[in-house]
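Lab notebook, bench 4. Still working through the backlog of constructs that have no structural model yet. Next entry is a single chain of 172 residues. Request: give me the structure tokens for it.
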Amino acid sequence: MTGGGSADFDAFYVATVRRIVLYLYAVSSDRSEAQDIAQEAFARAWQHWPKVSRYDDPEAWVRTVAWRLMANRWRGLRRRLTAQDRLGPTVEATAGPSPDRVAVMAALQQLPKPQRQVIALHYLLDMPVAGIAASIGVPVGTVKARLSRARTTLAGLLGEHDQEVDDVSSRS
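Model written out:
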């Protein structure tokens, strides 16, 4: 991507925003949060667009900024949750997603953040292992190890979920 004008940024945004939001949603399991963080990351890209547009992969820059923004929000959330624990539980009523989606998102949340990140990049953004390694700044072997561990953990977690669903179905 070359140039630095508004039309270039608009085309970049339209071409990449869904992928960024999907990546963030897979990592955070909160669609609204994913959309908010993506918008903030793209706003920062816009602020630095003359420079960012000259990068080989401006989308990787936005993903990195979004990952850092999410990490900062998680730290803030931990502080808020600690404060809420002192105040007692709250009750929220919302319509929920499908049981399968809940199971997958719950399983993803049980993965360590680095494993969750590579799973999202590889399976949701279809990035090759080498591209992931370059994007997050780790060796290819590290990405492969994280993917392997994540797959094993997810298989166990989702296999347990399938068993629970089968148990419930057989009781009905």
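Notes after review: Confidence is low (pLDDT under 50) at residues 161-172. The radius of gyration is 19 Å. Flag for follow-up if needed.
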